[in-house]
Amino acid sequence: MKDKNTGSGHGDTTREIDATIVLAGALGHRDENTFSGSDSEPMQSPDFSERFQYICDFGAGGVGRVAKARDLVFDRVIAVKSLNESFQDNADAVRSFIEECRLNAKLDHPSIVPVYDLGKDRDGHWRVAMKFINGSSLKRFINTIRGTYDKKKVNASQERHALISRLEYFLKICAVVEYCHSLKIVHGDIKPDNILMGNFGEVYLMDWGCARTFGTVPESLSGTPNYLPPEFLMDKIVTPLVDVYSLGMLLFEMTTLRRGNNNCPLPTEDSTTCCDVHNEQSYRHYLPFLKIAPRIRAIIRKAVNPDPSGRYQSVTELAADVRHFIYDEEVSAAPDNLFQKFFRMVNRNRVKSILITGLLFALLCGELFYSYYRTNRNNELRTVNTMRRLKLQGYTDILATAVEKNILQSQAQLLIFADNLIEDMQECAYAPPSSDSKFYSNEDYKNPETSPPGMVESPLYPNPVNLAYMMRMLPEKTSKLKQRLLDARQYVEICNKVISYDLTSHRINEAQNLHRELLGDKSMIQRLFVKWADGVRYVYPGTYDDPATATFRKCWNTFINPGINRKIVWTAPYRGVLDAHRISCRYPMFARNGNFLGIAGLELRLERLLAPLVKANDMDPVHELYLLDHNGNAVTVHEGRIVLLSGRKSPLSEFTDEEIRELAGELRENRMAQFEKTIRGKNYFISGYLIKTIDGMLLQMIEENAMAHHNHKDITL
Questions:
Q1: So what's the pLDDT on residue 167?
Q2: Hey, what domains does the chain have and what are their CATH numbers?
Q3: Dist CA 188 CA 194 (whole Å)
Q4: Dihedral angle, C-alpha 194, 195, 198, 200, nearest 10 °
Q5: Residue 267, phi-psi category: left (phi > 0), alpha (psi -120 to 50), beta (remainder)
Q6: How far apart are CA 93 and CA 293, in angstroms?
Q7: Per 3-state DSSP, what percentage of the chain is helix, strand, and coil (rounded to 5)?
Q8: DSSP letters along 543-555, please?
């Protein structure tokens, strides 16, 4: 059972001394005859009361007392510990006293006071005989140092050496605690009062009344709360981390020479309590002008971490860090940065460092002689690389400009188409329909007998077409909206104007060969169409349009509500008939009074719209070209063919549409500046150009090896 001080702790007259301090010789008494020899003959071993001859009382605590006695068998001075009179007849106190003595006797370590004998005196009270220690407690040791510092001024260097000596004592304490932990025993009450300092450098860990085995939960709280971790005060589970925390508190006092004191109602400048150990401001030396090293401060903070997981997990780890601090090595509680690691390595290997420094100096001299050639060579390579990049960007700009020109012409044709339709719709409300104008339906074109005269075959259309007539499709359900629409002849004339328009010469009403314009391989227009507000649809040129094809659905089933935004809308590229690719642009039409008339549109041949890219690919296939629209749809050119990129990788393209979108995003973030990127083990140069008319982008990619050995060809578009 643990001895507890019941005195006030103030003044010299009213003071109860813990039995462990008494064993340390805290009062400093010595018997001149302690080691006097004896010439008596060997005798038979007497019983306990006869063997140990009482000399004097040495000290007393709240529970126990210690007397100095002489061992008559071995003729030596020993210490005899017993319970106070008030506890001698207390069964629980006697049992705890015997258990503590037995545990102490089982422990065999140089820093644990050995037990000589356990027995009863003449009155039948239990007593234990132990080794008598000449020395003082750690508490008195610290106070003595403080008294010395008060009388004699010390500098930082002297305190550094003194601290190393104190830490050597601390390591001895850690060693005995490690020994106990190896036996699954936790001391549970490590504090300065329970540490005895011998006169010849010995260190003893005393008072085993609070010792428990790992994992046990004592019925009542034991130990000194100021030196116990928070988790033990709450759940009382015995773990090795209890002693680690106590050692951290002990290390704090041995380092700062300032002590925790639970009896002090308010913290003073020269003391600290258990709670403010976690405050950075508490880590100051007893002497204000002396500083605490950051690494030892980190060791203490880790040892007394309120969170057990952030604490040293064993006494071995704590002792190792303290030992590293003594030898000026890296500690785990405050890892070195690269700068510190370097200088520690240099300091440990001075000769090697000098040799390496000399070698580095020689290499530096060689580097200086070589630098002129290297600089010139790098400048040459940089210039060549810059020129290649400029030419790559210029190549991209030329192609993008040519594509944008085709897009602008298509949009101009669409606007002319829509304006003429709106104008003629306003006039047809007052003019009678032409007598020679006749509509032909989709079903009429399906049957050669009912189709209009003048049908011609074309490799660009799956079915015969007619350039003199249009095709009309009525809605499946009759619309409540009634519109006076253009007749067939008016619609064909407007379509002829649009087909004849050229962006460079602005030709509209000139007589043209429609067969050459529309059915030729240079025309971008596949067909012109209108979906009126009442659901009626006009298409030119007249031909049969199979409703079961995907092209039909792409053209007619993807109309969107025009709303109030009167702007051109582009669809995603899609595969048309005859393995060709198409794209549509549409424009909503409104009357002068704001009424919605319908949507005019052009279906374009994607191969012709992107003819500059196809031609560039034929002439210089080393470049990889990708066009991305505003919706993220991507197309590329491979061996003169347009390839639509979908979610999966195409065998005709190195990249998926998702990868192209990511590259386009990087270009936008980089403000369209070229950059290099490694993709699947290959390094690519990537350039781009914004096509603002469709809010899209043209990307050009070329592999690094190809870039280094490639001369961009001048192309005429």
A1: 94
A2: 19-133 (3.30.200.20), 137-335 (1.10.510.10), 432-609 (no CATH)
A3: 11
A4: 170
A5: beta
A6: 45
A7: 40, 20, 40
A8: E---TTSHHHHHH
| Residue of 690, 679, 685, 691 lying closest to 653 (CA atoms) | 679
Per-residue pLDDT at 433 = 60
The CA distance from 436 to 432, in Å, is 12
| Neighbour count for residue 45 (Cβ, 10 Å) | 10
Tell me the C-alpha distance between 535 and 552, whole Å.
Answer: 15
Residue with tokens 């210039």: 383
Q: Is 638 in contact with 644 (CB distance < 8 Å)?
A: no
pLDDT of residue 522: 80
The dihedral region occupied by 632, where left means phi > 0, alpha psi between -120 and 50, and beta the remainder, is left
Separation of alpha carbons 573 and 642, rounded Å: 10
Other Cβ atoms within 10 Å of 324 Cβ, number: 16
pLDDT tens digits for range 171-192:
999 999 999 999 999 998 899 9
Q: Which residue has the tokens 């990868």?
A: 659
Q: What is the pLDDT of residue 45?
A: 57
In this structure, how many other beta carbons lie within 10 angstroms of the beta carbon of residue 163? 22
Name the DSSP class of 210: T
Residues forming a β-bridge with 80: 67, 129
Closest residue by Cα to residue 10 from 259, 261, 195: 261
In sequence order, which residues have a C-beta less than 8 Å from that of residue 241 and are 6 or more positions away? Answer: 229, 231, 308, 311, 313
- Residue 23 has a pLDDT of 33
Instruction: Name the token pair of 411.
Output: 């949009």
Cα distances (Å, whole numbers) of residue 239 to 171, 180, 214, 243: 20, 12, 5, 8
The structure tokens listed for 84 are 């106070």
Give pLDDT, residue 587: 92
First to last CA, the chain: 102
Both tokens of 34, joined, read: 């302690």
Note the pLDDT of residue 25. 35
Low-confidence ranges of the chain (pLDDT < 50): 1-40, 42, 260-270, 272-275, 509-511
**Separation of CA 689 from chain center:** 35
Q: pLDDT per residue over 234-283, tens digit each?
A: 888 899 999 999 999 999 999 988 864 433 344 444 454 444 676 777 77
